[in-house]
Write a structure and sequence with these properties.
Number of helices: 3
Oligomer: single chain
Number of strands: 0
Strand content: under 5%
Low-confidence stretches: none
Keywords: Membrane, Transmembrane, Transmembrane helix
Shape: flat
Order of helices and strands: HHH
Organism: Rossellomorea vietnamensis
Largest sheet: none
InterPro entries: DUF2626
Pfam family, one: DUF2626
Protein name: DUF2626 family protein
Length: 81
């Protein structure tokens, strides 16, 4: 299970680089933080059950934050910069 968190760290790292190259620095920093979190977590050698609990908590926080952002912070119909 710890290897899967390294895989998640790898892919969030790839996304961080791509967001940075696309001039989306805030999103890049968020994904860089997630990369560090996943890589750090993968070396803790937790039990498989604990990894599942941590991932469930991560998804809960992410979806709550994403729902808040898309509902209250995004302006409908505001395209471009």
């Amino acid at each position: 299970m710890d290897r899967m968190f390294r895989v998640l760290g790898f892919w969030t790292g790839i996304f961080a680089v791509m967001f940075y190259l696309g001039d989306m620095t805030t999103t890049s920093l968020i994904f860089l933080g997630q990369t560090g979190f996943f890589i750090m977590l993968s070396y803790l050698k937790l039990s498989e059950r604990m990894y599942i609990y941590v991932f469930g908590a991560y998804l809960t926080v992410f979806f709550a934050g994403f729902t808040y952002w898309t509902t209250f912070m995004m302006t409908p119909g505001a395209g471009g910069h």
